[in-house]
Amino acid sequence: MKKKILVCGAGGFIGGHLASIFKDDKNYELVCADIKPKEYWFQIFDNAKNFSLDLKEYENTLKVTKDVDYIFNFACNMGGMGFIENNKAECMLSVLVNTNLLRSAIENSCKKYFFSSSACVYNALKQKQTFVSGLKETDAYPADPEDGYGWEKLFSERMCRHFSEDFGLETRVVRYHNIYGPQGTFDGGREKAPAALCRKIILAKKNNLKQIDVWGDGEQTRSFLYIDDCIKGTLDVFNSGFSDVFNVGSEEQVSINQMIEMIEEIADYKVKRNYQLDKPKGVRGRSSDNSLIEKNIGWKPNHSLKEGLTKTYKWINDQIEGGTNIDKFSKSNIVK
Ligand code: GDD
Fold first, then answer.
1. Which of 192, 214, 257, 330 for a ligand 1 pocket mutation test, highest count of atoms within 8 Å of Cβ?
2. Could you tell me the CATH number of the domain that includes residue 200?
3. Considering its fold, how many domains does the chain have in total?
């Protein structure tokens, strides 16, 4: 018997990549849902059943979960620091998506539910230095997450736990640490640092400009996870017997300045940096501790940051140099 899989947020970055894994697999029937009009989906597959609708509405979640075995929920209103710092209410409204999907999963007797959480759930006090120890899953408590977006993710994690405890729904939850790669937003306000800085250096080189804008002083640190590693980690956790929350991130902690140096090498073009201290900066330092997922699931990333950035840079360059559908990756702020 074929299993029916629902990918929510399939028109977005991670959802699109996850859907692409199942699209040609004869063991699965693929259903995709996203709030964006279909022409704005980052990837769309003809052999899937595709729904463009608002998953904040209960009747819509009931409709798309009908006869579904497995639900992957990537649907949320999100972006890089420039978006989440200025759209806290919009980010928190995504709680309706997760809540209604969970209710519908029970109503329609779905078998397993995956929720994509974020490193933004971690306690701010643990992220005050530039280089920090990797964040362990237990560092989310006592709770002091990123305002708006982080609170929604932490609340929704708990909602999954309680639906599992109270109603017997099998759930899987991972915390993504800044996922990047091809087919992701690179302009328009929702882009994260890797795509934004690739775009800025590509445009500087193309237009012979000597300087780019950088948010903050460039000494803040992050770890960034390449999309293929993210998808593998997602499936490994989903297929495992563990219902604990796991980090899916990289332990390669770099400052934004160090990442810019890598992109300069890839571009073979050097730029001066105009540090914009008034722009959204987020936490001072953040990185993943993967000991729990390595021990229990056996997953760890395969791509170094340099390898992932090389592929991402090439893809963004191709889009800027006249690839198709630039708008959908840059004007993705049509999601309400
Ligand atoms: N977006 C962006 N654009 N960030 C820049 C830029 C730029 O041009 N220049 C420097 N930065 C700096 C930001 O100020 C921030 O300090 C750092 O790069 C990382 O920014 P983002 O990639 O936008 O976000 P983040 O790492 O703080 O949070 C992201 O990852 C979380 C998971 O780890 C967000 O996407 C969150 O939504 C996500 O949960």
1. 192
2. 3.90.25.10
3. 2
pLDDT of 67 > 60? The answer is yes
What does the pLDDT read at residue 278?
A: 98
pLDDT in tens, 297-308: 999 999 999 999
Burial of 194 (0-12, 13-18, 19+ CB in 10 A): buried
Alpha-carbon span 112 to 107, nearest angstrom: 13
In a domain, 293, yes or no: no
Cβ atoms of residues 160 and 115 within 8 Å: yes
- Domain containing 139 equals 3-179+226-248
Residue count of the chain, please give it: 336
pLDDT digits (tens, 9 = 90+) for 250-295: 999 999 999 999 999 999 999 999 999 999 999 999 999 999 999 9
Q: How far is the CA of 284 from the centre of ligand 1 (A)?
A: 11
Give backbone dihedrals phi and psi of 239, rounded to 5 degrees, phi first: -85, -5
Nearest residue by C-alpha to atom 16 in ligand 1 = 281
Q: Are 217 and 234 within one domain?
A: no
At residue 176, φ and ψ (nearest 5 deg) are -80, 140
Query: How large is the average pLDDT for residues 170-193?
Result: 98
Tell me: do 87 and 70 sit in the same domain.
Answer: yes
Is the same domain home to 265 and 313?
A: yes
Residue 55 and residue 136: Cα distance in Å, rounded?
Answer: 31
Active site residues: 149
What confidence category does residue 334 fall into, taking pLDDT thresholds of 50, 70 and 90?
Answer: low
Question: How many angstroms separate the alpha carbon of residue 175 from the centre of ligand 1?
Answer: 16
The answer, yes or no, to whether any atom of ligand 1 lies below 6 A from the CB of 192, is yes
The answer on 160 and 210 residing in a single domain is no
For the question of whether the overall pTM of this predicted structure is more than 0.90, the answer is yes
Task: Answer yes or no: do 200 and 60 share one domain.
Answer: no
Residue 297 counted as domain residue: no
